[in-house]
Amino acid sequence: MLRARRLVTLWQRAQPVTDASLQRLSMSLARIDAAPVSVLHRRWMSSEGMNNVPFETDENMTKLLAELDTFRETGKWRQALKLLDRVDKDAALPALDPVMYERAIAACARMGKVEVLPGLLNNMLVDDLTPTSATMDFIIQAYLAKEHWGLIVQLASEATAMGVQLSPAAFHAIMEACGQVRDADSTFSIMEQLSEAGMPLTSDHYAAAIRAAGMGKRPDTAMALFVQMEEQDGLKDNGAAFSQLIRAQVLNGELEQALQSFATVSQRGLILDEPIYTCTIDSLVANKKHWQATRLFEQMLEGGEKHPSVFCLGRAMLAYTGANRSQHAWACWKKIVDINEPNPVAMKYNKMLQGLTHVRDTQLAVKVFDHIQTLFEPGQIHQGAYTTAIRAHGRLGNTQRAVDLFDEYVESCKDTRRVSRFVGIYLALFNALSRDTVRDPALNTRDAKRAWKIMSANVPVVLPPAYASLAGVFASTGEMETLEELIGHAERSWGASADMTQQQEVDEDGDELEAVAVFEGEDAELGSDNDVLLFNGVISGLCKARDDQTANIEAYLDMMLSRGLPITDSIVRATTDACVRFENWELMRNLMKVVDIDALKNPEVCTGDTVSKLLDAGKWSLGREWLMFCHRRGLHPPVRRKMELLREMCENKSKEWRIAYSLANETMSFRRLVQNNVNSVADAAEVCRNADRMDLVIKLFDAAAGHSSLRFFRNHQRQPVVVPLSLYKNAILALLRQPKAGAVEVDDSWRMVKAERICRQMLEVHGKHLDGDALSMAISIKATAGDHDDVGALYESMRALGLEPNSYAQNAAIIAFSRQRRTDQVLAIRDELLARCDENGKIQTVESNVARSLLLSLALAHEDNALRDAVQNLPGCTMEMALDVLMNTNRSTDAVELFNENATSESFEALFHQLCQSGNPVLGATLLLKHSRLHGLSQVHPNRVIRVTNALIEKGNLVETEKLLQVYVDGTDGVSLKQMPPYFQQHTMEMLLFIYGEFGHFDAMRSLFEKELLAFPLEVAHYEAAMEYCTESRDELAGAVASLKLFELLRTKGFIRPSGYTYLLTLQSCLRLERLEPANASAVKSMGQIILDDVREHGFLDGVADELAKQVASAIKRVQVKNQKVIRRINKDRESAFTSVMSADELARIALFCHRHGLPMTTKLVNDLLKLHQDLPTMVSNELAFIKRSLEEGLGVVAAPGSSIPSKRVVKTKKTAAPKAKRAPASFAPNTGLRRPRSKSYEAAVRAASDARWGVVLEPIATDKD
């Protein structure tokens, strides 16, 4: 035995290095001959080589193996070793091989002789033999029985380095050993060696290795193994490896990595077991990651978990409460109650209730405690559970119930346990008493004092939180004298508790406790903290008082400020609660002045609570003040109840498809299915389809169709299982629908190929029992493939069989027949639709896609009567669709003709928009007039008229534009121009002004300026544009007369200030009518003199002079720039320097006329006019030169000697007259180059207008005529 122990010791010390065989050889040679069993451990090393061994027969080998098998089965390990020794020495026997060693090692392992095994292994290595997989199994089993984990790891490292294949049991035992010794590096190296040795590794192998790495506190190694599994070996995990990876990350504190792994699981659609979810949720809740825990729990349910454990539901309940999702927490609790767990454990439920200590949903805590009371005796319930329940009842106002629970706890401690030294249960009772609003205050005071006595008897040292809680009770009951005594007693006792190592601070409700370390030498700071805690309890109690105690609260706040104590968050909340409750808004306003934002623990939440209370109370002004107070200090307070309702709506969505998918997978987990099982899978697929989870429908079909139970057996022992027709149809429908946006789909052509294959299978399996939906899906597939001949044939077959197609099939058939130009079949489908009636006898509404395809086919076939009949009689075929298809088929004229009183305003808008964009504004105007005749002109929006008139002008349709606008001007349709908006009136006036000017309708133009009660102001620019049109008339005399009439309207009507340009245009008209200078030497003033006197009288001389200078400068520019287009002066800003309709001769004559009659020219103006001498008569040029010399010599206004310039212009006849520059349209009119020829029949009208009285201003014309 001594030799055996030495062998074991030496083998354990051996290291798995490359030259370890030399060490093993030396170890095997160091044997002790004195041991009684030394003969059993001799070296079985033959002195002769393998080549000298005679050839053994199969009979000898069989006998040896049979004998070794007998020793192995009977456990005779000594005889087995002796036989090996004999075989090693006898050259006549077959040579030792791994199989012989395997049986000998099996015999030793069977009897638990682990100390012999290392020597046998060394002998095999010396004999250059590799252990078999079974050999490794026997050795590892023996080590497992003795729990020699380190030996297993060392053996596995050496064996895998030699390329030994491992059985699944041995592999898992090795991984367990690696985890037990926490050797993650050996785990990784063993996996690499197995992979190099060619052993086929599966995801289960990697799962075990990842688990071992996690047990070794190496989540990084676990991740490396997972990556190796997927990247190097190309294995896809079924969930086991992911579970072990996540477990390794969770147990080692890598929660974020674990959540990332769960996200990958969700993306891949894997389903993990419930324990791994529960483990992670528990860690997340423990680390205050409640929201992440809820998301993970929901992912677990979405993955198909139907029966979560009580512990998992409890952790999820705590997560939901921590995330402020009470409804989901209640659902978890109801599920726990419904489970009715057998043999419950008190510790589990106590821990569950203690997790609800700090939550806001106190009703849930009460329900949990009530359930605990039904499961366990009071002596089995932990005091922490009683504390939570008392606190919850106190918050709910059930003070008597809280007192009863406290008494129950004290009573349960008499026999089985002592009363707790934990102060929390007493503080919970004090807080419950301070909140009470029902019981007699004297009774609350009595119970508080009784609880104080019990606490004093069991708690060694009363800490400040206890004083604060008791002070809150006295403050809430109005015992102010007792309160003052307690405060004095507490302040005197601070020194006695200075040597305590911990104290607790109460939150805003006086409930939650936080440990604060206290050290010696900090007496002043300790007293300050105790004072703050004491005043916190006092103010919290005062805010819960039944009567108004805000005055006392303000007094205690002043006391705190005088002592230099900070006002904490809880004090602010308590004060604001009392102020809102008793409407002390002045104290709320003063609180802004005393609160120190830097002293608050969470200033944004605290101020947000204050603002929320004010807004809930309707105090908007004070709430705004608080908000400004917060913003000035850089705070952004969160206000409550912003999105509460929306969040609840989003969280209450149904998720039935997850349950259905899980049940279907469970049904298909059996090795052999019956027809009912497959039918249930079809039902699950229907649920998934209703939930729009088409990916799951495809998965269910693949799983059901690929199951072994669907194979046909030749012996006909049982009927084969058939996939139901509904499952075929749902699978085809799922494949026909496009994947959702964002799905990773590079090439989805496989969907159509697979749909065709499934459809073919469906026709083969259910050919005798097909329904309309099945054939409709076949039609849809053919339509998607573009095979219109098959679509038509299938539809005709369906019609012959009397099957009713769905909307997809009808739509595909209509399109196919239309492209085949089989209009009769399209009409037949229309008749079928008209014949379909519901139970009330009314024609059923046609789907929108079918209706549109039908109308489009009829429109393409020019079946106008059928189209009109479908619109009128077939529900679903709307006028909007008909008009749209007509426009899409370039039949806009027919669309306008089809438009009738049944069309809605939306259809009119759509058609009108399309007509305006189609470049055919005449049809748009026709539609507009038709709509106005059907529904009245008042139903036409002015913007539509503006749009169509602009389009008409751009196309040169001035006559149609005039007719359309004239409807408003005449008011023949019940709508006059005065009733329209100002912008429309202005557009109409300016558009008609442009049209009349182009046509030369001066009387109609003048009538526009005579309109009354216009809602927009006329400006001088309108008169300027109209006078320009008159001036540029082909009949200059008629135009001049019309211009003078417009000037008369400008000067006699309204308060529009004339511009210098209007005066120049008027003088130009006088010049053309030879009314600029007086006739002969008469004393009667000429028309030009009268107008110039009007200019002088109203102080417009500077304006006329400036405008004259601008016109001359413009004339110079036109001379310098040849072929420059003349731009009419319509710009209201008067900024264009090239706008003029006056010739150089007219400008010079008007300038000379003004010079002679009181508006002298400047030297610059004369010089500018002389630059135009090429376009001026010689007489005019000479007079301008004389005036220039006179001005230079300072002679003033002097007539040229011997000069007599007539006012009548001298018209020169040229051989080739240059074409007159085309006038540009007004700024308010569209830019168009089309102009209609003007009428030349104005001469008689001009003569009649010249003889008529124009008023006082134009009276000299009549005198001259006489």
From TrEMBL:
This is Mitochondrial protein. The keyword Phosphoprotein does not apply. Gene3D superfamilies: Tetratricopeptide repeat domain. Signal peptide: none annotated. Residues 1217-1240 are annotated as: Disordered. It comes from Phytophthora infestans (strain T30-4). It holds the Pfam family PPR. InterPro entries: PPR_rpt, TPR-like_helical_dom_sf. Keywords: Repeat.
